[in-house]
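note to self: dont lose this again. the chain is below, predicted strucutre after it. 29 aa total, dont forget to put it in the shared folder this time
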Amino acid sequence: MLTKYLLRIQDIYYLGPIFHFLLLYFPYH
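---
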């Protein structure tokens, strides 16, 4: 169960900057 939690945090850590980049790159999307 702890491993799933750590993987979830890892996904957020890697996807967060990507979503932030998309919001900056497509501000009107």
